[in-house]
Write a structure and sequence with these properties.
Helix content is 72%, strand content 0%. The chain has five helices and no strands. Helix 1 packs parallel to helix 3 (55-72) and helix 4 (74-86) runs antiparallel to helix 5 (92-114). Residues 1-13 have a biased composition (Basic and acidic residues). Residues 1-20 are annotated as: Disordered.
Length: 115
């Protein structure tokens, strides 16, 4: 599988890294995950208060920005899904390659959202 950046078709522009912009983008690219997003947001804000730190909120923003980056780019999303489907393959070499590809996709998406 290729690990080159996908600079082609995008379903939507990359959203700003704000809760509202991320939620709006997720509603377009993967609306089935909106409840999950809200639950993890609630958890992040609870931890932020408990820890007296914004790091859980920053982590939440980056995680969802990364996941939306994957979902908004069909080629990247396809690579992600294909790698996930092979993670538990009976052939260890195929499972290891799937893990490497999954890691490459996550890294590419995170680099894109971090600028």
């Amino acid at each position: 599988m290729s690990t080159q950046a996908d600079h082609g078709h995008e379903l939507i522009p990359r959203p700003e890294q704000t809760p509202d912009a991320l939620r709006t983008a997720l509603a377009v690219v993967d609306p089935g995950r909106l409840d999950e997003m809200q639950a993890t947001k609630d958890d992040a804000f609870t931890k932020a208060v408990e820890w007296q730190s914004l790091s859980p909120v920053r982590s939440w923003v980056l995680t969802w920005a990364r996941d939306i980056e994957i979902a908004r780019r069909p080629a990247l999303s396809s690579r992600f899904a294909q790698a996930q489907s092979r993670l538990e393959h009976e052939n260890p070499a195929i499972a290891e390659e799937a893990l490497r590809e999954l890691s490459a996709v996550l890294d590419e998406a995170m680099k894109a959202v971090r600028g």
